[in-house]
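TEACHING EXERCISE
Course module: macromolecular assemblies
Task: Read the component lines below, then compare them to the predicted structure of the full complex.
Student: A.B.
Group: 4
Components provided:
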Amino acid sequence: MLAKRIIPCLDVRDGRVVKGTRFINLRDAGDPVERARYYDQEGADEIVFLDITASVEKRRAIIDVVSKTASVVFIPLTVGGGIDNVQFMQELLQSGADKVSLNTAALSNPELINHGAERFGSQCIVVAIDARCKNHAAEGLRSWEVYSHGGRQPTGREVISWAQEVERLGAGEILLTSMDADGTLNGYDNELLAAVTSTVNIPVIASGGAGKLEHLYDAFTKGQAHAVLAASILHFGTFSIADIKQYLSSKGLPVRPVDGIKDYDLREEF
Amino acid sequence: MNKVIIVDSECANLNSIYKAVTAAGLTADITDEPDKITGADAIIFPGVGSYKHAMRVLEQKQLVDPLMTTIKKGIPFLGICLGMQLLCSCSEENHAQGSTERIQGLNAVKGLVTRFNNELPVPHVGWNQVQPAVGHPLFYGLGNSSYFYFTHSYYVTPDSDENILARTSYGINFTSAIIRNNLLGVQFHPEKSGPAGLRLLSNFGKIIAGKEH
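Instructor-supplied answer key:
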């Protein structure tokens, strides 16, 4: 069975992780490499680095972070934030990233998705969509608008049609963030998720709103998400990845077991 | 220990493979020099992306003959993802317009590469269980349903069941690892499959060293 994926997202600015309080046992909780390693050992299925570095000059710091992480963490690594050309994608992939996540640059230049997919394969190209609801349930059928620039600018694009377009252009996955749910801890926007997962035939990663364990379960069942991104609940220690996987597994969802992950001893002789 | 040669087919994940192979205790070199490939004691043949593009790169770099030479010699050889698919006879690539095109592969294992065509999302992305079809040193210590990381839209169907080393379920039961003597191929990414992946690479290292008993 294909396992439901749990993906911690680390915000990185100028080469440092900016969120998290529970990492008293780490030498340097602000070090992205240590944090990625921590989540890997906890049973994370992938790691996402979202680079929120403001200045273009400092953006290369992420390459070094990726390279160091890929030397010690052997699970898929996605990097997003400010990626606007194929050359930068190539540098990130060559340093050890497995996927790049495109957002604002893909909105202003959709061909970037196409070019990336042709050059590196669709499996390397994630398109991140920041969605905000345009109306309320009381007004009838909900619809969502795509925002760019880290959620600051409305684009006038409709989420469903943009999701279909990025699939057509060769995106391998969609990372779908509900701006309405993000930070509320009230659960993912499962209506938004279901609307997108029922329209496209590529995997969709749910993001924004997780506060309780059942929220993750709902994203997989009601929202039909293929993976969930989690930030606050992991960084602030509300739950560990083991808690999440144990819960999902008890509810009958397939997860990659955390148990036994460290059991393979490479020095063991046959 | 004998050095493993990682074939540089210009795919994006070369360094990830190098790092994982090194972490698994093997010594490795990345190269696209035909002579080094011909003289190799063991080969890792990675690949991601499009079949057509990858075959074109191999032809341009004049790597087809060196690869075939090493395969005929019977040295330990591990194809990864597209690298495994390229070992097969040919691939049926679907185009947006609905047409299909057959692209010839290396034909070291008789079989066809086709695109997933069921109700599930494509690409098949994530951690899925790999069930070895036969006992083989590549899977020593890994049980019969370990999770490995996959990301692919096409899969291999060998003509003969004898070439099936492992299977995985994704709507259908597809071949997730192939074998022909010392020629091995895995559809998943051991370099991204955590401890299980490192164990598999370490097992490959033991096969190279002839200590697989």
